[in-house]
Design goal:
The structure holds two protein chains of two kinds. By secondary structure, chain A is of the alpha/beta class. Helix content of chain A is 41%, strand content 19%. Chain A has seven helices and seven strands, in the order H-E-H-E-H-E-E-H-E-H-H-E-H-E. By secondary structure, chain B is of the alpha/beta class. Classes of the chains: A alpha/beta, B alpha/beta.
Chain lengths: 194, 271
């Protein structure tokens, strides 16, 4: 039986649509924390959303949600991983969009905005999975600048942004900037070295 | 005189600032960059490398005009009109009814040349004047308020002297402005870096009222499209690089990240 962290749902009741939530997790609890965040947003708050996957291919994430009985067909996925794998974009789901690489940060932002322009949901979230995965490909300063733009873009549009982050795998500059930009923190991280 | 009396003598409102009427392009983000749109009657050079989105930008400019009820014309010299329309049909903003109803008029330059008896390798002064007259007559007859010539580079290859190219563009721009027609001249360039010219012949950029540069930034082996408004007479505007995506809804823009606005040093695009 998969157990959700109910305290995350409680904490989410306190955030506004123009909030930016930093969600800290560890390696071992990443999916539990992700599901505990996404499920209340979809079910309790009836939100639509965009899930940006830089960590794993979107198919893998969708199947993980399906394995715990979650229908995520209402979420649009932007997959930054699978284009780097030959044949990776041949997928059986119509709610997956591909961006060639995690270094094409502006393209990710524009694709997200495009999806949000076409969605019928009144209230939406954008879930970024994850900062530490983006940090593999992007220099600290460009990633810090991107997060600044990303968060402010969605705050201005009253779209809830949720940024997943494994702190001990995130460069200190990016982490400190994230602390500065985000309005809320859900901390389920493990040992933080920095 | 005490400060209260001084306030009474000074104008408290800023002097009225004259602003030119705008041709609202309707392109997501571009009107914001141009602080409301292209000043009416301007001739704008859209200069870009291959695959940078020039033709899509031009077509969207026309379609957004047609959606607002404006008559638009597209002169194509780089691909047949049938092929152009087939390519543009993938975009959700385009509706073939706009062509059928006469709001969007697409002309093949080859057909125009043939009609004018200009099927020749190079144009002389009289040929250039005949071409200008034909374009202006079409614009005047249909009442075109938005015009795209794709590309002016292909057209100018037939005009052998720089002076004649200058005269052609200057006269055409002047006549179209008189008719209230806002024009985008698409220009093909091989590089869009800071050291590049923004036109093939070097004269188009001096004559145009505005220059929009489109190209690619190479980042770790990937090409990101960008758009930059270098010049636009009659309006304040952003001169920053903007990343663009060609989506089914049309061109979308966002400011390019400052730390990623330069191509990688080792790339052939940025060197």
């Amino acid at each position: 039986m998969f157990e959700l962290d109910q305290r995350i749902a409680e904490q989410l009741t306190e955030v506004a649509l123009n909030s930016a939530v930093q969600v800290r997790c560890g390696n071992s609890n990443a999916f539990m924390v992700t599901a505990s965040t996404i499920i209340p947003l979809m079910q309790m708050f009836e939100m639509g959303g965009v899930y940006i996957s830089a960590n794993r291919g979107a198919v893998e994430i969708i199947q993980a949600f399906e394995s715990i009985g979650m229908d995520v067909s209402n979420i649009q996925f932007i997959d930054l991983v699978s284009s780097g794998i030959l044949g990776g974009t041949d997928v059986p789901y119509s709610n997956i969009h591909f961006v060639d690489s995690p270094i094409m940060l502006e393209s990710v932002l524009l694709r997200t905005l495009y999806i949000l322009r076409t969605t019928t949901s009144v209230r939406n979230f954008v879930f970024l999975d994850s900062v530490n995965a983006l940090a593999i490909y992007n220099e600290d300063r460009i990633l810090a600048e991107y997060l600044h733009t990303f968060i402010n873009t969605f705050r201005q549009r009253e779209i809830l942004s949720v940024v997943l982050n494994v702190p001990d795998q995130t460069p200190p500059l990016v982490l400190s900037n994230l602390d500065l930009y985000c309005t809320d923190l859900i901390d389920r991280g493990q040992v933080v070295i920095h | 005189m005490n400060p209260t009396e001084l306030v009474g003598l000074l104008p408290m409102q800023p002097a009225a600032v004259y602003t030119r009427d705008r041709c609202v392009t309707g392109i997501h983000g571009l009107d914001e960059i141009l602080r409301g749109g292209i000043p009416y009657g301007s001739t704008v050079l859209a200069a870009g490398t291959c695959g940078s989105g020039k033709t899509t930008l031009g077509m969207e400019f026309l379609v957004r005009g047609a959606l607002a009820g404006e008559a638009c014309a597209h002169f194509t010299a780089t691909e047949p009109s049938v092929k152009l329309l087939e390519n543009i049909r993938q975009y959700a903003f385009f509706d073939m009814n706009m062509v059928d109803s006469g709001l969007i008029n697409v002309f093949d330059m080859d057909v125009l040349y043939s009609w004018l008896g200009l099927e020749k390798a190079s144009f002389e002064l009289d040929d250039v004047h005949a071409l200008i007259k034909a374009i202006v007559d079409i614009v005047n007859t249909i009442g075109v308020t938005r015009l795209v010539i794709d590309s002016v580079t292909t057209l100018c290859y037939k005009i052998k002297s720089e002076q004649l190219i200058r005269d052609f563009l200057f006269t055409l721009g002047k006549k179209l402005a008189t008719l209230g027609c806002t024009t985008i001249l698409i220009s093909e360039i091989t590089s869009a870096t800071e050291n590049a010219h923004w036109s093939s012949f070097g004269v188009e950029e001096a004559i145009a009222d505005g220059i929009i540069v489109m190209g690619d930034v190479e980042r770790m082996g990937h090409l990101l499209r960008f758009l930059q408004v270098v010049k636009m007479r009659g309006t304040a505007h952003s001169r920053a690089k903007h990343a663009i995506e060609l989506t089914p809804l049309g061109v979308m823009l966002t400011p390019m990240l400052k730390w990623g606005a330069q191509s990688d040093k080792t790339s052939r695009w940025g060197s």
